[in-house]
């Protein structure tokens, strides 16, 4: 096993928790397969039938990684169907013929809704429920037509989705991410930036004009039914090349792979030192075994050829409820969710939706000066007449004014330069994640108010959201040695120092009392 794979395995928990799918799992358990192995087979085959999972288990009988606790990676895509898909596939073929293969040919036509994320094998069924809930919730507002605007640059060509339809699609992605977190305990990052359907990417610059002409020939007037499709892939082979076997090959030596036409082989270009000319070392997707194979028996395949489609949600409003019920029953085997027109949220679902919309983010302050330069940090940066100067680049450029002078910073230290950088990075990460902030509460400690201000600046909310200073969340019994609360900056001093403080906010007495009670109970261990 390679060192990289060993590290990867070590990061994944093998705890079996949550519910399983008895109808699919029980036949496999009855044949003597362990629970974790049966769940792995179901996840690898899209949880369609026990028969497919059984075939997978039979093929992987000699797979050395069969018992390794590696879950699949999942992603959600918005995919066109019907005439538009046919025209896009025609563009794929023609652009490849005229301009050679580019990165867009690695994946089918799609709009990415969520980046790839991991989900434990026993919780995959919960992802399907998350997809169905998100689709049912947004069905009524989903756009009947998704406008596509052509965008071209020197290395990218594709359709952009703009306006209110894009907002609704992003809301669907965020709803799925929230439901997946609640139901499947998955960390899903929905797409919050420009939605796009890529036509060509990383192509030769002299092909740009030809690609643009082919793209303009795609008729966009056709009505299109869009589907949200959940796919999975094997996370171990993300950066590998994928080959497709063209011919059958029977091994001549024990270290060679058996090939059948249509088999997919994962090849790591960086690990081919042992292979002779004309041969490669690869891992068979069908069997999980590793060995040598003749390269001329294969052809390059696309990245998404090895992905597994799990479930789809089709955005359509059928008027015939009886035909909908019939089609819904028949679609369960194919993994497609048909939306329900008569939708109603139960009280539990409504509560979950409320919880999903109102979450609390707890953020620790950035690096503080005294943690780096020790308790005597103030003496290192003070002149004899009590003025501040910067003896080291990790000291802040300046300090805010305090009515009692610089000495009060000793027990209420500011952030270091690294702490300021950390806070901005945290804000930038929150902005990139698409999380919406409505209220900010901060400890009255200067380092905490600084952290809140810097995060809001990165979120572009420093003028819209005022910081509510809450003494009840100030912790001082661990780091500070004194038995009394340190002298903190007043609200007026904070405002004078250009902090956007909510001076109308009043701390709740029970909050302070609860915090003090907990601190007494913990015997000052905070």
Explain this structure.
With 526 residues, the protein is α+β, with helices and mostly antiparallel strands. It has four domains: 24-60, no CATH class; 72-235, Cyclic phosphodiesterase (Cyclic Phosphodiesterase, Chain: A); 241-306, SH3 type barrels (Roll); 369-497, Phosphoglycerate mutase-like (Rossmann fold, 3-Layer(aba) Sandwich), CATH 3.40.50.1240. It is 34% helix and 15% strand. The protein has 16 helices and 15 strands. It has helices at 3-10, 22-30, 35-44, 50-59, 82-99, 124-138, 163-184, 208-216, 321-331, 347-357, 369-373, 377-380, 417-433, 446-458, 491-496, 509-521; strands at 72-79, 111-118, 149-152, 156-161, 195-201, 227-234, 241-245, 264-267, 279-284, 290-294, 298-300, 308-314, 336-337, 440-442, 467-469. The chain has a five-stranded mixed sheet, covered by helices on one side. α5 (82-99) runs antiparallel to α8. The two termini are 43 Å apart.
Spatial extent as radius of gyration = 29 Å
CATH fold call of the largest domain: Cyclic Phosphodiesterase, Chain: A
* Reported CATH architecture of the largest domain: Alpha-Beta Complex
Q: So what's the oligomer here?
A: single chain
The number of domains: 4
Give me the count of strands: 15
| CATH homology group of the largest domain | Cyclic phosphodiesterase
What is the C-level CATH assignment of the largest domain? Alpha Beta
Largest sheet: 5 strands, mixed
Helix content estimate = 25-40%
Major sheet strand order: 2-1-6-12-13
Give the overall shape: elongated
- Structural class by helix and strand composition: alpha+beta
Domain SH3: 238-303
InterPro entries: His_Pase_superF_clade-1 (IPR013078), His_PPase_superfam (IPR029033), Phosphatase_SH3-domain (IPR051710), SH3-like_dom_sf (IPR036028), SH3_domain (IPR001452), UBA (IPR015940), UBA-like_sf (IPR009060), UBASH3A_SH3 (IPR035634)
Main location: cytoplasm
GO cellular component, one term: cytoplasm
């Amino acid at each position: 096993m390679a060192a990289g794979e060993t590290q990867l395995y070590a990061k994944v928990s093998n705890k079996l928790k949550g519910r399983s799918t008895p109808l699919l799992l029980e036949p496999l358990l009855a044949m003597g397969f362990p629970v974790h192995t049966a769940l792995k087979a179901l996840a690898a085959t899209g949880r369609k039938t026990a028969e497919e999972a059984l075939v997978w288990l039979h093929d992987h009988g000699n797979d050395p990684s069969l018992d390794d606790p590696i879950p699949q990676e999942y992603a959600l895509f918005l995919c066109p169907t019907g005439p538009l898909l046919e025209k896009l596939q025609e563009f794929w073929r023609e652009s490849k013929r005229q301009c050679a293969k580019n990165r867009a040919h690695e994946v089918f036509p799609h709009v990415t809704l969520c980046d790839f994320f991991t989900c434990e094998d026993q919780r995959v069924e919960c992802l399907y429920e998350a997809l169905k809930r998100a689709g049912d919730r947004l069905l009524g507002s989903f756009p009947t037509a998704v406008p596509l605007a052509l965008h071209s640059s020197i290395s990218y060509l594709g359709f952009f989705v703009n306006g209110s339809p894009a907002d609704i699609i992003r809301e669907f992605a965020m709803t799925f991410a929230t439901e997946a977190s609640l139901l499947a305990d998955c960390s899903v990052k929905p797409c919050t930036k420009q939605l796009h359907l890529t036509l060509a990417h990383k192509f030769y610059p002299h092909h740009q004009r030809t690609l643009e002409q082919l793209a303009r020939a795609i008729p966009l007037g056709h009505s299109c039914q869009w589907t949200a499709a959940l796919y999975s892939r094997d996370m171990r082979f993300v950066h590998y090349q994928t080959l497709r076997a063209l011919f059958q090959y029977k091994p001549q030596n024990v270290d060679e792979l058996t090939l059948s036409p249509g088999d997919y082989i994962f090849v790591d270009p960086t690990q081919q030192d042992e292979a002779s000319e004309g041969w490669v070392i690869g891992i068979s997707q069908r069997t999980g075994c590793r060995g040598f194979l003749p390269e001329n028996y294969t052809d390059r395949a696309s990245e998404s050829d090895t992905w597994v489609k799990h479930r789809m949600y089709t955005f359509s409003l059928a008027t015939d409820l009886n035909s909908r019920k019939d089609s819904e029953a028949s679609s369960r085997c194919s993994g497609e969710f048909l939306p329900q027109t008569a939708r109603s949220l139960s009280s539990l679902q409504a509560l979950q939706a409320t919880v999903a919309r109102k979450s609390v983010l707890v953020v620790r302050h950035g690096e503080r000066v005294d943690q780096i330069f020790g308790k005597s940090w103030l003496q290192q940066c003070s002149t004899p007449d009590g003025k501040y100067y910067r003896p080291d680049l990790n000291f802040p450029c300046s300090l805010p004014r305090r009515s009692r002078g610089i000495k009060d910073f000793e027990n209420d230290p500011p952030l270091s330069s690294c702490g300021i950088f950390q806070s901005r990075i945290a804000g930038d990460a929150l902005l990139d994640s698409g999380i919406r902030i409505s209220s900010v509460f901060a400890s009255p400690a200067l380092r905490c108010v600084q952290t809140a201000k810097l995060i809001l600046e990165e979120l572009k909310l420093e003028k819209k959201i005022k910081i509510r200073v809450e003494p009840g969340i100030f912790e001082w019994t661990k780091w500070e040695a004194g038995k009394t609360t340190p002298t903190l900056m007043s609200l007026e001093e904070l405002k004078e120092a250009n902090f956007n403080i909510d001076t109308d906010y009043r701390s709740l007495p029970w909050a302070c009392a609860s915090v003090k009670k907990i601190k007494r109970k913990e015997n000052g261990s905070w």
